[in-house]
User: Fold this.
Amino acid sequence: MDLEEAQEKGWSGVLVYHEMFNELRQHEIAVDEKNWLNLMCEMRGDLLIWCPDRQLLYTTNLKCLHSNPERYRVTFQELTCTNTPFGVHRLLPSPSDKHVALIGDDGVNILELQRHRGPCGEFGGGYKTVNCKCTPIDQDYFVARKQADTKIVLHAEWINECQLAMLMSDESIRAYSVFDLNYPMFTIPLEKDRPSLSLRDKFVTFGVLPAPLREEDDVTLLLIKSNGDVHLLSIRQNKEFFPIVYKLSSALPMLPASDDNYEMSVHDVLVLSCTPPVVVISTNDSTCYHCILLPSEDQQQDGAGPECQLLVYDGLQQEKGLELEEQDEGAGLLHQGAELLVDTSCNYQYYIIDGSGIQRITLLWAMNVNRHLQNSNISLKSVFEGSSEVQHLVVTHPLVQDSPMAGQLVCGICCVSSRMLGHVLVAITTEGECITLPLRQPHPPSELHNNDMTPYSHAPSQPSLLEEQVKAELSRSRGVPIISNRDGAKLDLQQCYEMLCESTKNLRDQHMVQQGKAKQLLTKRMESLLRQRRKQEEDLQKFAQQSRAMSQAAHNIKDRVEVLQQKNEKFCNRLRAILCHLEMASPELSEMECNARKELKEMTNKLKRLQNEIKVCTVRLDKSTPGQDLFTLSIPSLASHQLTTVHQLLGDESSRLTNLVKNVKELEKQL
Assistant:
């Protein structure tokens, strides 16, 4: 299938050709024989993949890939950790989708994701590399326990949005809050009264019930031991006092009754949130038991007995039709127990991940039970006629050896379920290949597959492999001198020398192997620190540029503020003047009107002076001799045309003065 055909299938087909997986193929994904790898998770449309070689997360937004596949097929982000963890084999996202628990052999680290910013809703605004805060949980405790136990955390689950519960190797439950990771919120010792002396009698895993059995219980955990004993741990967190109140029940009875719990060697457990709750138990011999959690009818009156019981409905066992050579990759994982993953789209489905691939199990009988509880008209006989259906989604070790997926192991799986993206299963292999499978809701058994072709068979009871394991542990090569000598005789010098040489060689080889591992860890640590340093230098440069831009913007804002303050001051003064004039009941005049008013006052004073001078001149004329012309004495003789001109000028001035007087009087009236 080429890229054009993949684009027709939507984002699930384009994701296979994403550039992120090309980058992942350039780095090696080592197979861990002790733990199953689940290096992928999905959080509200964001796909996160852990790269063990570079110790960072690759992420891409599936919603953006759905809307614009051509652009976002070649773009992805890298989330680097401040405190780089090593040996991570599982990613556990929180229910709030704000934190991711990185679970490894040395402990658990909480990665705090940055907020989505930008038009595309990417981490940290859409930068290529984003630094995220990574905090180790209770580092002092884990460092102290690391010297005693090789595997400290047996199992971990989120019990709510901000609390992570862990089953420790010292038979205790420790819960931590994301707000305080240095100290546990509470610690519950499981074997306080009777310490466990046998390795088969230890708690190996637990599951969180979807709803508490009692109203006052905040959390109810279903704990299971390696021998199949199931216990309920009810935890109530009181706000008034501390410590919390908890109650550990005795082993729940299994029906039909069995002395050895059906010879279970438990590997994993899963609780399906259906009605009634179904507990799925996977064993080391690849058998999955389906148990119904029911209230107990034989509970004692004093409340000392168990409150629930398990009804073992059926079991699915994988047929050992494929045998791998010991030198083949994943040969040990193929014969280990299967990991269980819940299906977020349906409460009656779950996934099995083992060395042979991925299978989806549909509990048709559980659907019939739920319908019977809702509608009592359905006969109880028809309810238990259903069975469990198996659908093979990914086959990594098939019977046909020429398959393209042969020889690969699944190292990451997640279920994408939303209205926009649909219901798709996404998985990655150790070779960096991406597998996307659009899934549907449960169908009748005939439409799924042929039951004759499935490697699972209904076999609730099978002989235990304990005897074979004990024989394998006790069998030794006869080349070892101390075992070959069984008659109790003393060893000669030659045998002692051979033993000394062989032990020295083994110690030297172990030292070289440990030295090589330490060198690889130091190299990865140096690469991670250098990568973080480059990212921090880039961030510092960006922060410096932003600081200069903000300083310039601050200066501009300061200048504008000063200008606005001056304008505001003038405006306030203007308002004060208007208020004063309003209080005095006088009109408010502008600056030009005030200047005109001053000029009018000056003209009025000038006119008064002129009137006084005219009066003085008139009095003088009246006191003079009659018939005598005062002006003729000083005025020289003029011609007739000159006299005419003088009379005209005097008439014009007289008319002008008259007009001025009229204007002044009109202005006085107006004022």
About this structure: Residues 582-612+659-671 form one domain.
